[in-house]
Amino acid sequence: MNLIKLRLLLEQFFIEDIGERDVTSELIFGNNSRGSLVLIAKDEGIFCGEQIINIGFKLMDESSQVIMKVKDGEKVGKGQELAFITGKVSSLLKAERVVLNLVQRMSGIATKTAEAVRALDSINTRICDTRKTTPGLRMLEKYAVRCGGGFNHRYGLYDAVMIKDNHISFAGSIRNAVEAVRSNLGHMVKVEVEIESKDQLLEAIEAKVDCIMFDNRTPEQIEEWIDYVPEGIVTEASGGITLNTLNSYRNCGVDYISLGFLTHSVKSMDISAKVKAEMKGDAHYEFIGGARS
Fold first, then answer.
1. Which 3-state string (H, E, C) describes 38-104?
2. Domain tally for the chain?
3. Which CATH number goes with the domain that contains 100?
């Protein structure tokens, strides 16, 4: 993950939330009071967001100290402590909500991805994401997919060619679209074509594309058609595949299954920030408050 870009994103998110100032925290605590927070998982799942916590709290207060108790990709249980943060009270409270919102969403995506990997239960086919991400959060959400054991599809329109049904309709055929791309494309960029019929499959193979996506095809259709695909062309299944139907694609023969639901409709993991009042050794403390809205 690009930490320079992450810092810039966090700056934008803090500006959105804080505006001119946090009137509540500043008026109550000023700029000198110091305190500590502990982040606690209220759900089971896969944690993701270590750098969000580290950079987020220190961006708000350079003197903050962050002690992580888990690492990205680790399974956490309900009630498990994730991180301790010490710093200026007003700064802790300014950073808290933005940090929690991001870590909760990223952990939810990592958890859902891990569920999909388990549901597929295949050593030959990989789970990957799509471009159905939250605007502004793509880097973070795709990182979360990797933490959950999945893989990334293209990041955007710029890093791979993906010829979809509308491209084909406007161009007149797969052949026309591929030829137009190949005549102007550098040798380092892959070309993928989305197909919906056997005729389109054969046309894509003849055009020597790098990757073929079976779009909204049943496992039975893919099994019937995949033998036509020569070695060297990567295959992918996508469209209409759910967590409940995923296992039926286990033996269809594709290299990847891309799933939009990993990012577009995921449930965030519930994580709480509690005030830590008094240190009593490394892992003992007294709680005197909870997270605010």
1. EEEECCCEECCCHHHHHHHHHHHCCCCEEEECCCCCCEECCCCEEEEEEEEHHHHHHHHHHHHHHHH
2. 2
3. 3.90.1170.20
